[in-house]
Amino acid sequence: MTREFTLSLADPRATLENVGGKGASLARLAGWGLPVPDGFHLTCEAYRDFVADNGLEPAILDALDAADPSQPSSFETASSAISGLFAGAPMSSEIARAIAGAYARLPGGAAVAVRSSATAEDLPGMSFAGQQETYLNVRGEEELLGAVVRCWASLWTARAIAYRLRMGVDQRSVSMGVVVQIMVPSEVSGVLFTADPTTGEQGEMVINASYGLGEAVVSGRVTPDTLVVDKTSLIVKKATLGMKDVSIRATGEQGTVTEGIPEGRRGQPALSERSVKELGKLALQVERESGGVPQDLEWAVADGRYWILQARPMTGLPPAPLKDVRWDPPIPGTKWIRRQVAENMPEPLSPLFEELYLSDGMELAMQMDMEMLGYPGVVANTGLPSYATVNGYAYMCASFTINARGLLKLLASLLGGKTMRATFVQAIPYWRDEVLPGHLKTVERWKELDLAFARDEQLLDGIRELALSEARYWGSTTLALAAAKGSDMLLGRFLAIAMPRSGLSSSLFLRGFPSKALEAQARLEAIAEHIRASGDLRQIALSIPVQRLLDALSAGGGDVAEQLQDYLGRYGHQVYNLDFADPTQDEDPTPVLLSLKAEVHHPGVEVRVRQAEMVRDRESLVEQTARHLDPLRRRLFLKILHWAQGFAPYREETLFYIGSAWPALRRLALELGRRLAEAGSLDAPGDVFYLQTQELLTASEGRRAGRNCPDLARIAMERRGLREARKRLHPPAAVPPAARWKFGRIDLSGFETQKRNADEGPTLQGFPVSPGRVTAPASVILSPADFDKMMPGTILVCPTTIPAWTPLFAQAKGLVTDIGGVAAHGSIVAREYGIPAVMGTGNGTQRIVSGQQVTVDGDAGTVTLAV
Question: How far apart are CA 619 and CA 855, in angstroms?
Answer without folding.
Answer: 28
